[in-house]
Amino acid sequence: MQSAFETIEYRPTEDEPFMNPRQREYFRAKLENWKEEILRESRETLDNLQEESQNHPDMADRASSESDRALELRTRDRQRKLIAKIDAAVKRLDDGTYGYCEETGDPIGIARLDARPIATLSLEAQEMHERREKVYRDD
């Protein structure tokens, strides 16, 4: 087992076997750290919302506060969905399917996974998916 320091210093490359144990550990740590950061930010958001829930006698202050609150809640909803995707990625790490495209079964690629560790499609499959979406959106 590697120390956390070694995991942080390590950077996966295309030159090594795809999804070897060291790469899997790297991506697991990356996903878990990301989730912890989101949860920490969520706790801070909830604390801020509780502090903000005081009455504002001024209508402009109240409107501004309500607008901020709505934005915070939308952000929280996006974070909740992101946590679900992170959990799904960790599950794929556990079952051995992490890093492989859902559509083609091909490796997604280290650079793409490093940039977007919750990716489920290879770059090519993602581009095809977006082109299909654009075609249907333009109708």
In short:
By secondary structure, the chain is mostly helical.
Largest sheet: none
Q: For the CA atoms, what is the radius of gyration?
A: 20 Å
Arithmetic mean pLDDT: 86
Oligomer: single chain
Total beta-strand segments: 0
And the CATH topology of the domain at 4-98? Four Helix Bundle (Hemerythrin (Met), subunit A)
Helix share of residues? 55-70%
Please give the alpha-carbon distance between the first and last residues.
54 Å
Spans with pLDDT under 50 lasting ≥5 residues? 1-7
Structure explained in plain terms:
- There is one protein chain.
- The protein has 139 residues and is mainly alpha-helical.
- It has a domain at 4-98: Up-down Bundle (Four Helix Bundle (Hemerythrin (Met), subunit A)), CATH 1.20.120.910.
- The protein is 70% helix and 0% strand.
- The chain has 5 helices and no strands.
- Helix 2 runs antiparallel to helix 3.
- Residues 1-7 have low confidence and may be disordered.
Reconstruct the topology from this structure.
Blueprint: H1 4-9, H2 21-52, H3 59-95, H4 110-115, H5 123-138
Helix pairs in contact: 2-3
